[in-house]
Amino acid sequence: MLGSNSTGNLSRAAQVSLTFLMSLFALAIMIGNAVVILAFVVDRNLRHRSNYFFLNLAISDFFVGMISIPLYIPHTLFNWDFGSGICMFWLITDYLLCTASVYNIVLISYDRYQSVSNAVSYRAQYASVVRIVAQMVAVWILAFLVNGPMILASDSWRNSTNTKECEPGFVTEWYILAITTLLEFLLPVISVAYFNVQIYWSLWKRRRLNRRPSQAGFITTPSSDSGHLHRAGLACRTSIPGPKESAVSLHSESPRRKSSFLASFRTPMKGSIIAFKVGSVSRSESSALHQREHVELLRGRKLARSLAILLSAFAVCWAPYCLFTIVLSTYHRGERPKSVWYSIAFWLQWFNSFVNPFLYPLCHRRFQKAFWKILCATKQPAPSQNQSVSS
Q1: 1 located within any domain
Q2: What is the residue range of 109's domain?
Protein backbone atom coordinates (compact mmCIF):
# COMPACT_ATOMS: atom_id res chain seq x y z
CA MET A 1 0.00 0.00 0.00
CA LEU A 2 0.98 3.60 -0.37
CA GLY A 3 2.73 5.33 2.44
CA SER A 4 3.51 8.90 3.26
CA ASN A 5 6.96 9.70 4.46
CA SER A 6 5.82 12.63 6.60
CA THR A 7 7.62 11.94 9.88
CA GLY A 8 11.04 13.27 9.06
CA ASN A 9 10.73 16.30 11.37
CA LEU A 10 9.81 14.31 14.48
CA SER A 11 12.01 14.35 17.55
CA ARG A 12 13.91 11.29 18.69
CA ALA A 13 11.54 10.72 21.63
CA ALA A 14 8.51 10.90 19.32
CA GLN A 15 10.13 8.47 16.91
CA VAL A 16 10.86 5.98 19.70
CA SER A 17 7.32 6.29 21.07
CA LEU A 18 5.76 5.76 17.64
CA THR A 19 8.07 2.82 17.02
CA PHE A 20 6.92 1.21 20.26
CA LEU A 21 3.22 1.79 19.48
CA MET A 22 3.52 0.55 15.91
CA SER A 23 5.44 -2.53 17.02
CA LEU A 24 2.83 -3.22 19.69
CA PHE A 25 0.13 -2.88 17.05
CA ALA A 26 1.90 -5.35 14.75
CA LEU A 27 2.34 -7.77 17.65
CA ALA A 28 -1.37 -7.55 18.49
CA ILE A 29 -2.26 -8.37 14.87
CA MET A 30 0.00 -11.41 14.92
CA ILE A 31 -1.28 -12.67 18.29
CA GLY A 32 -4.95 -12.29 17.41
CA ASN A 33 -4.65 -14.11 14.09
CA ALA A 34 -2.20 -16.69 15.50
CA VAL A 35 -4.84 -17.71 18.06
CA VAL A 36 -7.32 -18.38 15.23
CA ILE A 37 -4.74 -20.40 13.28
CA LEU A 38 -3.66 -22.38 16.36
CA ALA A 39 -7.25 -23.09 17.39
CA PHE A 40 -7.99 -24.44 13.93
CA VAL A 41 -4.94 -26.69 14.05
CA VAL A 42 -5.57 -28.01 17.58
CA ASP A 43 -9.34 -28.60 17.48
CA ARG A 44 -10.50 -31.00 14.78
CA ASN A 45 -14.12 -29.94 15.28
CA LEU A 46 -13.29 -26.59 13.69
CA ARG A 47 -12.27 -28.16 10.41
CA HIS A 48 -15.48 -27.23 8.66
CA ARG A 49 -15.87 -25.66 5.23
CA SER A 50 -16.66 -22.19 6.60
CA ASN A 51 -13.83 -22.26 9.12
CA TYR A 52 -11.27 -23.01 6.41
CA PHE A 53 -12.04 -19.60 4.94
CA PHE A 54 -11.53 -17.98 8.34
CA LEU A 55 -8.18 -19.75 8.48
CA ASN A 56 -7.26 -18.24 5.11
CA LEU A 57 -8.27 -14.79 6.36
CA ALA A 58 -6.22 -15.22 9.54
CA ILE A 59 -3.15 -16.25 7.52
CA SER A 60 -3.26 -13.15 5.34
CA ASP A 61 -3.83 -10.85 8.32
CA PHE A 62 -1.09 -12.57 10.33
CA PHE A 63 1.55 -11.81 7.69
CA VAL A 64 0.38 -8.19 7.55
CA GLY A 65 1.58 -7.87 11.14
CA MET A 66 4.67 -9.98 10.50
CA ILE A 67 5.98 -8.49 7.21
CA SER A 68 4.18 -5.34 6.10
CA ILE A 69 4.23 -3.28 9.28
CA PRO A 70 7.71 -4.25 10.60
CA LEU A 71 9.31 -3.24 7.28
CA TYR A 72 7.30 -0.04 7.07
CA ILE A 73 8.24 1.22 10.56
CA PRO A 74 11.96 1.94 9.92
CA HIS A 75 11.18 3.17 6.42
CA THR A 76 8.68 5.82 7.52
CA LEU A 77 10.16 6.79 10.92
CA PHE A 78 13.91 6.61 10.29
CA ASN A 79 13.96 7.24 6.52
CA TRP A 80 15.45 3.85 5.75
CA ASP A 81 15.96 3.51 2.01
CA PHE A 82 14.63 0.12 1.02
CA GLY A 83 16.45 -0.15 -2.23
CA SER A 84 14.97 -1.62 -5.38
CA GLY A 85 14.79 -5.25 -4.24
CA ILE A 86 13.31 -4.75 -0.76
CA CYS A 87 10.93 -2.08 -2.04
CA MET A 88 9.59 -4.40 -4.72
CA PHE A 89 9.21 -7.23 -2.20
CA TRP A 90 7.39 -4.99 0.30
CA LEU A 91 5.03 -3.54 -2.32
CA ILE A 92 4.03 -6.90 -3.79
CA THR A 93 3.69 -8.51 -0.36
CA ASP A 94 1.65 -5.71 1.17
CA TYR A 95 -0.69 -5.33 -1.78
CA LEU A 96 -1.11 -9.10 -1.97
CA LEU A 97 -1.85 -9.56 1.74
CA CYS A 98 -4.31 -6.68 2.03
CA THR A 99 -6.17 -7.64 -1.15
CA ALA A 100 -6.27 -11.31 -0.12
CA SER A 101 -7.75 -10.25 3.22
CA VAL A 102 -10.48 -8.35 1.38
CA TYR A 103 -11.26 -11.24 -0.97
CA ASN A 104 -11.39 -13.67 1.93
CA ILE A 105 -14.10 -11.52 3.48
CA VAL A 106 -16.06 -11.77 0.22
CA LEU A 107 -15.61 -15.56 0.18
CA ILE A 108 -16.76 -15.82 3.80
CA SER A 109 -19.80 -13.68 3.00
CA TYR A 110 -20.70 -15.88 0.04
CA ASP A 111 -20.36 -19.00 2.19
CA ARG A 112 -22.59 -17.46 4.89
CA TYR A 113 -25.16 -16.59 2.21
CA GLN A 114 -25.20 -20.18 0.93
CA SER A 115 -25.52 -21.66 4.42
CA VAL A 116 -28.55 -19.50 5.27
CA SER A 117 -30.38 -19.02 1.96
CA ASN A 118 -29.78 -22.54 0.61
CA ALA A 119 -29.42 -24.44 3.87
CA VAL A 120 -30.65 -27.84 2.63
CA SER A 121 -28.54 -27.99 -0.52
CA TYR A 122 -25.59 -26.47 1.34
CA ARG A 123 -25.58 -29.26 3.93
CA ALA A 124 -26.24 -32.00 1.41
CA GLN A 125 -23.47 -30.80 -0.88
CA TYR A 126 -20.23 -32.66 -0.40
CA ALA A 127 -17.27 -30.31 -0.18
CA SER A 128 -13.95 -32.08 -0.41
CA VAL A 129 -10.80 -30.66 1.07
CA VAL A 130 -9.34 -30.33 -2.43
CA ARG A 131 -12.20 -28.08 -3.51
CA ILE A 132 -11.92 -25.93 -0.40
CA VAL A 133 -8.16 -25.56 -0.83
CA ALA A 134 -8.70 -24.66 -4.49
CA GLN A 135 -11.03 -21.82 -3.45
CA MET A 136 -8.49 -20.60 -0.90
CA VAL A 137 -5.69 -20.64 -3.49
CA ALA A 138 -7.93 -18.87 -6.02
CA VAL A 139 -8.29 -16.00 -3.55
CA TRP A 140 -4.52 -15.50 -3.45
CA ILE A 141 -4.18 -15.74 -7.24
CA LEU A 142 -6.88 -13.12 -7.82
CA ALA A 143 -5.34 -10.88 -5.15
CA PHE A 144 -1.98 -11.03 -6.92
CA LEU A 145 -3.48 -10.31 -10.35
CA VAL A 146 -5.07 -7.07 -9.14
CA ASN A 147 -1.78 -5.22 -8.49
CA GLY A 148 1.13 -7.65 -8.89
CA PRO A 149 1.64 -7.42 -12.67
CA MET A 150 1.41 -3.61 -12.62
CA ILE A 151 3.96 -3.37 -9.80
CA LEU A 152 6.36 -5.66 -11.66
CA ALA A 153 5.86 -3.70 -14.89
CA SER A 154 6.57 -0.39 -13.13
CA ASP A 155 9.97 -1.55 -11.86
CA SER A 156 11.73 0.59 -14.46
CA TRP A 157 10.90 3.83 -12.61
CA ARG A 158 13.01 2.73 -9.63
CA ASN A 159 16.16 2.81 -11.77
CA SER A 160 15.63 6.39 -12.92
CA THR A 161 14.72 8.19 -9.69
CA ASN A 162 16.49 9.10 -6.47
CA THR A 163 13.44 9.30 -4.25
CA LYS A 164 13.38 7.29 -1.07
CA GLU A 165 9.62 6.84 -1.14
CA CYS A 166 8.73 3.24 -1.88
CA GLU A 167 5.72 3.62 -4.16
CA PRO A 168 4.65 1.89 -7.38
CA GLY A 169 4.88 3.78 -10.63
CA PHE A 170 1.15 3.98 -11.22
CA VAL A 171 0.36 6.15 -8.19
CA THR A 172 0.07 9.23 -10.37
CA GLU A 173 -2.29 7.59 -12.87
CA TRP A 174 -5.77 8.23 -11.54
CA TYR A 175 -7.50 5.86 -13.96
CA ILE A 176 -5.30 2.94 -12.84
CA LEU A 177 -6.01 3.76 -9.21
CA ALA A 178 -9.71 3.97 -10.03
CA ILE A 179 -9.59 0.45 -11.48
CA THR A 180 -7.66 -0.94 -8.51
CA THR A 181 -10.01 0.81 -6.10
CA LEU A 182 -12.95 -0.73 -7.94
CA LEU A 183 -11.42 -4.20 -7.65
CA GLU A 184 -10.11 -3.83 -4.09
CA PHE A 185 -12.92 -1.93 -2.43
CA LEU A 186 -16.08 -1.13 -4.40
CA LEU A 187 -16.81 -4.56 -5.84
CA PRO A 188 -16.06 -6.36 -2.53
CA VAL A 189 -18.26 -3.94 -0.59
CA ILE A 190 -21.11 -4.31 -3.08
CA SER A 191 -20.76 -8.10 -3.04
CA VAL A 192 -20.74 -8.40 0.74
CA ALA A 193 -23.67 -5.97 1.04
CA TYR A 194 -25.63 -7.96 -1.56
CA PHE A 195 -25.04 -11.24 0.28
CA ASN A 196 -26.06 -9.63 3.57
CA VAL A 197 -29.29 -8.24 2.12
CA GLN A 198 -30.11 -11.61 0.57
CA ILE A 199 -29.56 -13.32 3.93
CA TYR A 200 -31.97 -10.94 5.69
CA TRP A 201 -34.51 -11.37 2.88
CA SER A 202 -34.28 -15.16 3.12
CA LEU A 203 -34.72 -15.04 6.90
CA TRP A 204 -37.77 -12.80 6.55
CA LYS A 205 -39.42 -15.20 4.07
CA ARG A 206 -38.65 -18.23 6.21
CA ARG A 207 -40.08 -16.51 9.28
CA ARG A 208 -43.33 -15.83 7.41
CA LEU A 209 -43.57 -19.40 6.14
CA ASN A 210 -42.76 -20.73 9.59
CA ARG A 211 -45.80 -19.09 11.14
CA ARG A 212 -48.43 -20.45 8.75
CA PRO A 213 -47.73 -24.20 8.93
CA SER A 214 -47.39 -24.11 12.70
CA GLN A 215 -50.78 -22.45 13.14
CA ALA A 216 -52.44 -24.80 10.65
CA GLY A 217 -50.91 -27.84 12.31
CA PHE A 218 -52.19 -26.95 15.75
CA ILE A 219 -55.72 -26.16 14.50
CA THR A 220 -56.45 -29.12 12.23
CA THR A 221 -55.19 -31.80 14.58
CA PRO A 222 -57.82 -31.32 17.33
CA SER A 223 -60.56 -31.17 14.69
CA SER A 224 -59.60 -34.62 13.46
CA ASP A 225 -59.74 -35.91 17.02
CA SER A 226 -63.18 -34.38 17.53
CA GLY A 227 -64.33 -36.07 14.31
CA HIS A 228 -63.21 -39.43 15.64
CA LEU A 229 -64.93 -38.81 18.93
CA HIS A 230 -68.12 -37.70 17.16
CA ARG A 231 -68.16 -40.85 15.06
CA ALA A 232 -67.49 -42.87 18.19
CA GLY A 233 -70.55 -41.31 19.87
CA LEU A 234 -72.75 -42.10 16.88
CA ALA A 235 -71.51 -45.66 16.87
CA CYS A 236 -72.34 -45.97 20.56
CA ARG A 237 -75.88 -44.67 20.05
CA THR A 238 -76.62 -46.91 17.09
CA SER A 239 -75.23 -49.99 18.72
CA ILE A 240 -77.45 -49.83 21.87
CA PRO A 241 -80.77 -51.69 21.27
CA GLY A 242 -84.18 -50.07 21.89
CA PRO A 243 -86.46 -50.85 24.84
CA LYS A 244 -89.04 -52.82 22.79
CA GLU A 245 -86.47 -55.14 21.33
CA SER A 246 -85.00 -55.77 24.76
CA ALA A 247 -88.43 -56.66 26.21
CA VAL A 248 -89.24 -59.20 23.48
CA SER A 249 -85.90 -61.01 23.40
CA LEU A 250 -84.85 -60.55 27.02
CA HIS A 251 -84.26 -64.21 27.76
CA SER A 252 -83.27 -65.51 24.32
CA GLU A 253 -80.68 -62.87 23.29
CA SER A 254 -79.36 -61.62 26.59
CA PRO A 255 -75.82 -63.10 26.33
CA ARG A 256 -75.52 -62.14 22.67
CA ARG A 257 -76.78 -58.64 23.40
CA LYS A 258 -74.30 -58.16 26.17
CA SER A 259 -71.38 -59.32 24.04
CA SER A 260 -72.43 -57.15 21.06
CA PHE A 261 -72.92 -54.18 23.36
CA LEU A 262 -69.48 -54.58 24.88
CA ALA A 263 -67.87 -55.08 21.47
CA SER A 264 -69.63 -52.06 19.98
CA PHE A 265 -68.62 -49.96 22.97
CA ARG A 266 -64.97 -51.04 23.01
CA THR A 267 -64.35 -50.61 19.28
CA PRO A 268 -65.12 -46.86 19.13
CA MET A 269 -63.22 -46.30 22.35
CA LYS A 270 -60.16 -48.02 20.91
CA GLY A 271 -60.49 -45.92 17.75
CA SER A 272 -60.74 -42.71 19.74
CA ILE A 273 -57.71 -43.66 21.84
CA ILE A 274 -55.68 -44.43 18.71
CA ALA A 275 -56.84 -41.18 17.13
CA PHE A 276 -55.87 -39.28 20.26
CA LYS A 277 -52.41 -40.89 20.27
CA VAL A 278 -51.90 -40.12 16.56
CA GLY A 279 -52.99 -36.56 17.13
CA SER A 280 -50.61 -36.13 20.04
CA VAL A 281 -47.73 -37.59 18.00
CA SER A 282 -48.48 -35.27 15.10
CA ARG A 283 -48.62 -32.33 17.49
CA SER A 284 -45.29 -33.30 19.03
CA GLU A 285 -43.70 -33.67 15.59
CA SER A 286 -45.10 -30.32 14.52
CA SER A 287 -43.82 -28.74 17.71
CA ALA A 288 -40.36 -30.27 17.20
CA LEU A 289 -40.28 -29.07 13.60
CA HIS A 290 -41.35 -25.61 14.68
CA GLN A 291 -38.66 -25.52 17.37
CA ARG A 292 -36.00 -26.72 14.92
CA GLU A 293 -36.98 -24.04 12.43
CA HIS A 294 -36.89 -21.45 15.20
CA VAL A 295 -33.33 -22.51 16.10
CA GLU A 296 -32.32 -22.27 12.43
CA LEU A 297 -33.76 -18.78 12.21
CA LEU A 298 -31.88 -17.68 15.31
CA ARG A 299 -28.66 -19.13 13.87
CA GLY A 300 -29.24 -17.38 10.56
CA ARG A 301 -29.98 -14.11 12.33
CA LYS A 302 -26.73 -14.38 14.28
CA LEU A 303 -24.74 -15.10 11.12
CA ALA A 304 -26.36 -12.17 9.33
CA ARG A 305 -25.57 -9.86 12.24
CA SER A 306 -21.92 -10.93 12.32
CA LEU A 307 -21.69 -10.47 8.56
CA ALA A 308 -23.14 -6.97 8.85
CA ILE A 309 -20.52 -6.10 11.47
CA LEU A 310 -17.79 -7.54 9.24
CA LEU A 311 -19.02 -5.40 6.33
CA SER A 312 -19.22 -2.24 8.44
CA ALA A 313 -15.69 -2.67 9.78
CA PHE A 314 -14.34 -3.33 6.29
CA ALA A 315 -16.05 -0.26 4.82
CA VAL A 316 -14.91 2.04 7.63
CA CYS A 317 -11.30 0.83 7.43
CA TRP A 318 -10.92 0.96 3.66
CA ALA A 319 -13.13 3.81 2.41
CA PRO A 320 -10.94 6.74 3.67
CA TYR A 321 -7.75 5.30 2.18
CA CYS A 322 -9.32 4.59 -1.21
CA LEU A 323 -10.72 8.12 -1.34
CA PHE A 324 -7.36 9.66 -0.43
CA THR A 325 -5.44 7.69 -3.05
CA ILE A 326 -7.77 8.77 -5.85
CA VAL A 327 -7.66 12.42 -4.79
CA LEU A 328 -3.86 12.46 -4.40
CA SER A 329 -3.37 10.79 -7.78
CA THR A 330 -4.41 14.05 -9.44
CA TYR A 331 -1.21 15.70 -8.13
CA HIS A 332 2.28 15.18 -9.50
CA ARG A 333 4.63 13.01 -7.51
CA GLY A 334 6.56 15.85 -5.87
CA GLU A 335 3.58 18.17 -5.42
CA ARG A 336 1.27 15.97 -3.38
CA PRO A 337 0.33 17.51 -0.01
CA LYS A 338 1.25 15.53 3.08
CA SER A 339 -1.49 15.28 5.66
CA VAL A 340 -1.81 13.51 8.97
CA TRP A 341 -5.28 12.39 7.89
CA TYR A 342 -3.76 10.46 5.04
CA SER A 343 -1.47 8.69 7.48
CA ILE A 344 -4.47 7.81 9.65
CA ALA A 345 -6.36 6.51 6.61
CA PHE A 346 -3.28 4.53 5.62
CA TRP A 347 -3.08 2.81 9.00
CA LEU A 348 -6.83 2.16 9.09
CA GLN A 349 -6.52 -0.47 6.38
CA TRP A 350 -4.05 -2.36 8.57
CA PHE A 351 -6.37 -1.88 11.54
CA ASN A 352 -8.86 -4.05 9.65
CA SER A 353 -6.40 -6.94 9.96
CA PHE A 354 -6.42 -6.38 13.72
CA VAL A 355 -10.21 -6.43 14.19
CA ASN A 356 -10.98 -9.29 11.79
CA PRO A 357 -10.15 -12.10 14.28
CA PHE A 358 -12.42 -10.55 16.92
CA LEU A 359 -15.40 -9.91 14.66
CA TYR A 360 -16.34 -13.54 14.06
CA PRO A 361 -13.81 -16.32 14.76
CA LEU A 362 -12.95 -15.42 18.35
CA CYS A 363 -16.60 -14.54 19.07
CA HIS A 364 -17.75 -17.94 17.81
CA ARG A 365 -18.49 -20.47 20.53
CA ARG A 366 -16.43 -23.25 18.97
CA PHE A 367 -13.40 -21.01 18.55
CA GLN A 368 -13.78 -19.89 22.16
CA LYS A 369 -13.80 -23.49 23.37
CA ALA A 370 -10.69 -24.23 21.32
CA PHE A 371 -9.01 -21.09 22.67
CA TRP A 372 -9.71 -22.07 26.28
CA LYS A 373 -8.52 -25.58 25.52
CA ILE A 374 -5.21 -24.14 24.32
CA LEU A 375 -4.99 -21.82 27.31
CA CYS A 376 -5.70 -24.60 29.80
CA ALA A 377 -3.17 -26.88 28.10
CA THR A 378 -0.45 -24.26 28.45
CA LYS A 379 -1.31 -23.57 32.09
CA GLN A 380 -1.56 -27.21 33.12
CA PRO A 381 1.41 -28.04 35.37
CA ALA A 382 3.65 -30.95 34.56
CA PRO A 383 3.20 -34.04 36.81
CA SER A 384 5.69 -34.31 39.64
CA GLN A 385 8.12 -37.19 39.97
CA ASN A 386 6.26 -38.70 42.96
CA GLN A 387 2.97 -38.67 41.05
CA SER A 388 4.54 -40.30 38.02
CA VAL A 389 6.08 -43.05 40.21
CA SER A 390 2.82 -43.70 42.06
CA SER A 391 0.90 -43.87 38.82
Answers
A1: no
A2: 12-212+289-374
Residue 357 lies in a domain: yes
Q: Note the helical H segments in 78-186.
A: 83-117, 119-124, 129-153, 174-181
Separation between Cα atoms, residue 155 and residue 79, nearest integer Å: 21
* Mean pLDDT (the chain, rounded): 74
The Cα 367–Cα 41 span in angstroms is 11
| End-to-end Cα separation, the chain, in angstroms | 59
Write the CA distances from 228 to 7, 267, 273, 276, integer angstroms. 88, 12, 9, 9
Supply the DSSP string of 304-368, one letter for each residue.
HHHHHHHHHHHHHHHHHHHHHHHHHTTS-GGGPPP-HHHHHHHHHHHHHHHHHHHHTGGGSHHHH
Residue 234 in domain = no
- pLDDT per position as a tens digit, 243-254: 444 444 434 445
Domain harbouring 111, CATH code: 1.20.1070.10
Domain annotation covers residue 386: no
Q: pLDDT for 136-177, tens place per residue?
A: 999 999 999 998 888 888 754 454 444 467 877 666 677 788
Q: Can you tell me the distance from the alpha carbon of 111 to that of 153, in angstroms, rounded to the nearest whole number?
A: 35
- Phi and psi at residue 4, to the nearest 5°: -125, 120
Q: How many domains in the chain?
A: 1
Spell out a b/e string for 344-379, using b for 16 or more CB atoms within 10 Å of the CB, else e: ebbbebbebbbbbbebbbbebeebeebbeebeeeee
